[in-house]
Amino acid sequence: MKIKVLCIHALLFCNALCLPYALADEAQASQVNQANSVNANGTPQAPLIGMDRSKDFSPEFVAVPFVFSTETLSTTVGGAGVIKHAGQPQASAFGIGLYSSNESWITYLGLNNYQLPKLDQWLLSGEFSRASYKEGIYFVPEDANRSSKGVNSSDAMATDRIITVGDEFYAKLHIKYVLPWGKGAKGAARSLMPSLITDPLSWDPRESGVTSLQITPFIHTQELLGYEELPTKTQGLKFKFDWDNRDNGKNSTRGGRSSLTLSRDFGARDGGADDRESWTMWEFEQSAFLSMGESDWFGQQILAFNFYLADTPTWNDYDSSSQAYQRPPSFAGVALGGFDHLRGYSSKQFYGRSALLYSAEYRVQPRWQPLQSLPVFNLYDIPWWQWVVFAEAGQVADDFSASELHEDMKWTLGVGARFEVENVIVRTEFAYAEDSKQFWIMVNQPF
User: DSSP for 152-200?
Assistant: First the structure.
């Protein structure tokens, strides 16, 4: 087993409520890509190792101890670790633990991309997280603490920013079937490999990209001190159709990605505190990437676009027996704000029935790359860095209406720098909005 320890030498100021989600996404994406080298401009070379199981895929352990400070957690110490090739060439195990000076804590465990014998088109992943925030920052339906129905009041779109004790838990099991065409023709494990720069790209899913169907049973709870009337639990299934036609998920230069996700909580009526309303929600997301070629200053110039649309069809359905609307809790429903959607605002700041978001980014990789020669940075493998300017416009509405979703839209403008550090994408961004601004340090591309 190869062992490597990465130390973070500076304080990181980030949104700790989002940290487990972001790191989990990156862990799922990184375990196969690390087997490949990359060019200076970030495009993958031919793989040094394929998914041939006769090759050496000995486990590799990477640990990251860190210290940072946030408004929610105060000074925090902790660590994250990932085991690549964890029992299988394409699999990984990821864990994180944090403890803060205000006695908040976060734990997360993820097991990613495992296969059962003779089921070459299937991938299984699981996630488990528990957290307790003593000074958690949340956005809840306006006047929720004075409403007997909380999220099911007649006007649930307006939100209040609160600071309170919050306990959170979620568990998910991802069961993914990769269709045997395009990059999935050679099995689900090989479909995880990034495309080569010489690979042809087609807009026919039978010839290009990875097409998959995924079902995810989930449980998610959130309990806020002083807001006991709010729904605290959701449990159900997510169904996702995904066509990933990008050349490289870490640094896409061409292609795009299409996904449609349907979430359903079937509700529960036991006459106790665990009663839940049934609800249905769907989300559609489409990205596209266009290469603008090279220049004297930049080895790579990319225009990246993303479109997000979501709705809750059961929003206005009323259950007379429970005297409640069929709506998801605010922590599980349609929302904008955070490190991926409308980055100039806090996480899930805007909540409602439906949402629309347009995003555009101009990404460049400078030919000038001094990082490997600088102290501290020269301890790590940093093959490329990227400068980004971005703009977003979106809205949340209590009706699924094109006119309402385009009325008085919220907007964000921002700049950022992104780095590949030991096969992990680290991004720093400053986002400015009309009445808010945010500074993010996170992992993974936003799309």
Answer: GSS--S-EEEEEEEEEEEEEEEEEEEE-SSGGGGG-HHHHTSPPPTTS-
pLDDT at 173 over 90: yes
Give the span between the Cα atoms of 26 and 106, in whole angstroms. Answer: 17
Which pLDDT score is estimated for 124? 97
- Calculate the CA dihedral of residues 429, 28, 136, 103 and round it to 10 degrees: -110
User: Contact 205/258 with Cβ under 8 angstroms?
Assistant: no
Give Cβ neighbours of residue 347 (< 8 Å, ≥ 6 apart). 15, 17, 18, 139, 337, 338, 339
Spatial distance between the Cα atoms of 307 and 123, rounded to a whole number of angstroms: 27
| CA separation for the pair 365, 320 (Å, rounded) | 58
Lowest mean pLDDT among 23-32, 49-58, 312-321, 403-412: 23-32
3, 61 in Cβ contact below 8 A? yes
Question: Which class for 254: exposed (0-12), middle (13-18), buried (19 or more C-beta within 10 A)?
Answer: middle
Six token digits for residue 425 = 């994408």
Q: Give the tens place of pLDDT for each residue, 178-187.
A: 999 999 999 9
- Per-domain residue ranges of the chain: 2-443
- Segment (H or E) for 27: helix 19-33
Check residue 151 and give its pLDDT.
47
Q: Write out 51-117 in H/E/C secondary structure.
A: CCCCCCCCCEEEEEEEEEEECCCEEEEEEEEEEECCCCCCCEEEEEEEEECCCCEEEEEEEEEECCC
* Alpha carbon distances (Å) from 95 to 69, 71, 444: 20, 23, 17
pLDDT over threshold 60, residue 258: yes
Sign for the pseudo-dihedral over CA of 388, 30, 44, 185: negative
Q: Return the CA Rg of the chain.
A: 22
CATH class given for the domain over 2-443: mainly beta
pLDDT of residue 64: 77
pLDDT digits (tens, 9 = 90+) for 179-226: 999 999 999 999 988 777 777 788 899 999 999 999 999 999 999 999
CB atoms within 10 A of CB 58: 10
Q: Which amino acid is at 217?
A: P
3-state secondary structure of 341: coil
CA nearest to 210, candidates 89, 123, 82, 125: 123
